[in-house]
UniProtKB/TrEMBL annotation:
Residues 14-129 form the LD-carboxypeptidase N-terminal domain. InterPro entries: Carboxypeptidase_A_C_sf, Class_I_gatase-like, LdcA_N, Peptidase_S66_N, Peptidase_S66C, S66_fam. Belongs to the peptidase S66 family. One of its GO terms (molecular function) is serine-type peptidase activity. This is Muramoyltetrapeptide carboxypeptidase. Residues 171-287 form the LD-carboxypeptidase C-terminal domain.
Length: 299
């Protein structure tokens, strides 16, 4: 199990940065209001407002902002403002060793999966959760699970049974995130070790044959055969060609794991969906899938 950051307390500072796409400070007003409501102190990073094409400044500028927040002992959590693409470009420009002595939450999802995967290999837990942008438009549970975890609580998740589920119980370290990003990390020094772990997957706006290509890649890399369990969140706004691929995203995933016996739970409330609940990546969890519901709990 990875090192778990300490719980926050009222007044603690939370840095808002962008490791990927550019974002204007004015667009962060709702997220700032959320932090203040929780009696936390928002700190706006130097990457906010910067522009280099689609990015929040150059790779060096984004890496510098992340490094400053990692090294600053007054910053107790780092909240990524926006996804898109770009986090992977700064991984090798940042020294994450400060987290070994003073771990702090790094919060985000989608493109931030690159950070989650990199941190997991260094033994640091992180928080797969809604980013700053659009936080006010998501479900109450999206915000409350984020708040609960930051303040030291571990939520439990009950979600409805899905017809494609595979019944069973699994225990292991929870890892994962965005399928496209995990796929892009294969073969690198940030690729996750999935053996004996519970893998969470979600994705957005991909062609169905891309989903199949990525799942086949994970399978051929040996990332599926030794899983303890699989959780699938939102597979949102999938695309198809004029000649249909012939399977839904759910069916593609199922066909990729058909020979394995670990439990599988679909329709978990996380991903590019309205109900994007927070998950602690890098901590031990138990997944129980029954004919009535699925339940995820932290150990």
């Amino acid at each position: 199990m990875n090192i778990l950051p300490q719980k926050l307390k009222k007044g603690d500072q939370v840095a808002i940065i962008s490791t990927a796409r550019k974002v204007n400070a004015i667009d962060l007003a709702p997220a700032i209001a959320v932090l203040k409501k929780w009696e936390l102190t928002p700190v706006i990073g130097s990457s906010i407002g910067l522009t280099e094409n689609q990015f929040a400044g150059s790779d060096k500028e984004r890496a510098k902002d992340l490094q400053q927040q990692l090294n600053n002992p007054e910053i107790k959590a780092i909240w990524c403002a926006k996804g898109g693409y770009g986090s992977v470009r700064i991984l090798d420009l940042v020294d994450f060793s400060a987290l070994q002595q003073a771990p702090k939450w790094i919060i985000g999802y989608s493109d931030v999966t690159a950070l989650h995967a990199h941190l997991h290999l260094q033994g640091i837990a992180s928080l797969h959760a809604q980013m700053c942008i659009d936080v006010e438009t998501k479900s109450k549970a999206s915000r409350e699970t984020l708040k609960d975890i930051l303040f030291g609580e571990k939520p439990h998740y009950n979600f409805p049974y899905a017809a494609f589920n595979k019944i069973g119980t699994a225990k292991g370290t929870l890892i994962g995130g965005n399928l496209s990003v995990l796929y892009s990390l294969c073969g690198s020094n940030s690729a996750v070790n999935t053996k004996g772990k519970i893998l969470f997957l979600e994705d957005l706006d991909e062609y169905l044959y891309h989903i199949d290509r990525m799942m086949q890649n994970l399978k051929r890399n040996g990332m599926l055969e030794n899983l303890a369990g699989l959780i699938v969140g939102g597979m949102t706004d999938m695309n198809d060609n004029t000649i249909p691929f012939g399977k839904t995203a759910t069916e593609i995933i199922l066909s990729s794991i058909s020979e394995y016996s670990f439990p599988v739970a679909f329709n978990f409330p996380a991903g590019h969906i309205w109900d994007n609940q927070a998950l602690i990546l890098g901590t031990e969890a138990t997944l129980k899938v029954t004919s009535k519901q699925s339940r995820l709990t932290y150990c």
